Amino acid sequence: MSNLAINVENVVKSFPAGDTRTYALKGATLDAKFGELLMIVGPSGCGKTTLLSVICGTLKCEEGRLTVFDHDLRAMKEGQITRFRCENVGFIFQQFNLIPTLTAVENASVPLILNGVSTAEATRRAGEVLEKVGIGEKRHSYPSQLSGGQQQRVAIARALAHEPRLIICDEPTASLDAATGQKTLDLLKSSALQPDRCVIVVSHDNRIYHFADRIAEMEDGRVTGIHNDPKNYHHA
Amino acid sequence: MLGIALKMLFRDRAKYAMLVCGLSFCSLLMCQQISVFCGLMMWTTATVRNIGAPVWVVDAKVEQANEVIPMRQIEVERVRSVPGVAWAVPLFIGMEQARLADGSFQNVQLTGLDTGTLTGRPMEMRAGRIEDLRLPNAVIVDQVAVEKFRKKGIKIQLGTTFEINDKEARVVGICHAARSFFGQPYIYTTFDRAMEYTKPTRKQLSFVLAGPSAGVTDEELAARISRLPGLRAITKDNLFWLTVLWYIKNTGIPISIGTVVILGIIVGIAIAGQTFYLFVHDNLRFLAAFKAMGARMPTLAAMVLLQAFSVGFIGYGIGVGLVSWFGSVVLVKEQPPFFMPWQVPTFVAIVIVFICSFSALIGLIKVARLEPAVVFR
Description:
- The structure holds 2 protein chains of 2 kinds.
- Chain A is an alpha/beta fold.
- Helices cover 31% and strands 29% of the residues of chain A.
- Chain A is built from 6 helices and 10 strands.
- Chain A has helices at residues 48-56, 78-88, 104-114, 119-132, 148-160, 178-192, and strands at 4-17, 20-33, 36-41, 63-68, 71-72, 89-92, 166-170, 198-202, 214-219, 222-227.
- In chain A, helix 3 packs parallel to helix 5 (148-160).
- The longest helix of chain A is centred in the last third of the chain and has 15 residues, at 178-192.
- In chain B, a hairpin with a 5-residue loop joins strand 2 and strand 3.
- In chain B, 53% of the residues lie in helices and 18% in strands.
- By secondary structure, chain B is of the alpha+beta class.
- The A-B interface holds A 49, 52-53, 56, 58-59, 79, 82-83, 85-87, 89, 91, 93-95, 97, 99, 101-102, 106, 110-111, 113-115, 119, 170 and B 1, 3-4, 7-8, 11-12, 283, 285-286, 289-296, 299, 371-373, 375-377.
């Protein structure tokens, strides 16, 4: 197995805008390795989230090459991509996207159930992951009964429950205060990062850049630089 | 994921309650109104059901059971002469006024049965014996007469007397008969005495009741009798439906009841459709998250359909349950009219399935158009 988890080469993605098209990605190129936390940074509208969507298969790119865990995502059909996502990708969203009418453990069990695990087994395993992220005692609480940080922990548990190889995080600290944001990234790095996993984080928050192993800087739909020393990275 | 779908539905209590209430109200409105309509139509056929003869012979111009065009009494003999007729008897039905002991009047439907056979006799006697109808001045009254007279302060019992056209009528029995459309009490007597109670006219025979010989069907017999000039023979079932159809065509009842039923459907679609649309709309972000996490469209469709049909099933159950309870209460008093054959709840179930399908379809269109990438926006 190569150490390269994700390979993105000259990827182009556009969206219709009236009679013309707006290009969100104009030939983005990026690699991500197993066992690393790659952070994608850049100004608003530079294409960070579009690139993240293309990598996890929720958006299809029009040109370029896209390989995730040796799978050519561009050659795969919609159903195959959905299956691939179900088995291999864990999501942490900016707004958490926890179902308000489900308890923490029920929310965390959703990816397991989607992967065909029985409800009882999914609940047991989701409970274990909630313990691991330090929120086991809140397993029967609804999202509205949890603080922002606790909700993000549940979201992390949900992303990890089915042991995916790729964790996608979209602005994971955007809805959190500084201290909670730091704790969340700390938890994410310690619990999510494994030698056979890859974590990609899109963020604006320069207070968490030092958690990254590498930083990919984007501008105007392209990756303009890769920084291997995040601790000394200062975004312009 | 179906369990998750049900939890999402049941725990969103406000919308769940709204959906169930809307569909319950819709089911109740439709089921109750159609049952009242069926009850009314049953009232219109009360005479047919009370008398119960297999073949009814009437004047050729008669269109339904409550329309009486008097015939000559000789028509009984003409009917008896038709091959295949096992028996044929006269029947008188007419509106008369009963004068009570305190001088007040009550409209009654006088039914004169064949004196010899008492064909068309009431099926259920609550007091007295039917054979006593052959005693002088004897009449049998139904439960409606007992009720109506009681409201006028007169307690009807065996031996009670009143007058019909200045002639004494003595109650020798109390029966139970299907309530008539106009709500007048049934007064049973013999055909001969009915002729005495009514004003003499040239034609006084309302119906000839006939029965077929062995090997002849009711339909065959009716066809044979109908060949007689000036007469029309109708089987009991046909007369029942002719009467119902006549009231549907010639009265405003179907329009007024139909309006309420359509209103029920509109209310159901409006409340259930809109609320379910809102429910799906509010959950779109989460459905998109499911999609992003790998939920396929059939899974999401099954979730949405299960949610729609769960509220439909519960709403239908509550609505039809309430109507059944209402029916069991009113059936004791026989008022207002109420009759709920299995076709009514089946029809309502079909409408509810339509409403749920419509609601689910609106939601599914939204879900199908949903890009999983919206979760990142």
